[in-house]
Amino acid sequence: MPRMEYAERFADDLASVTSPKVENRILENLDNIERFGEFGSSMVPASIKEEFGEGVRKVAVNPFDLVYTLYPEQDLVRVEALVHQRAAR
């Protein structure tokens, strides 16, 4: 299992989630990412790739994309942010 690292932005984004149901789905997906680093899709909108760089992946957790970067050579996953799907282009 890769080591998980959480960006400050992700912590702020998660704190702003008001729906317990959405928050639980986010936490479940974090567990999946921890178990299977390549769980998410590498097919991300250009705006996400521009902001977070190469290796970025996403998991859809409506209404957000849970954005993380996989560093397989370091056995590390860095959870970057929650991006509202309407904001991604």
Automatic annotation (TrEMBL):
This is Sirohydrochlorin cobaltochelatase. It comes from Gordonibacter massiliensis.
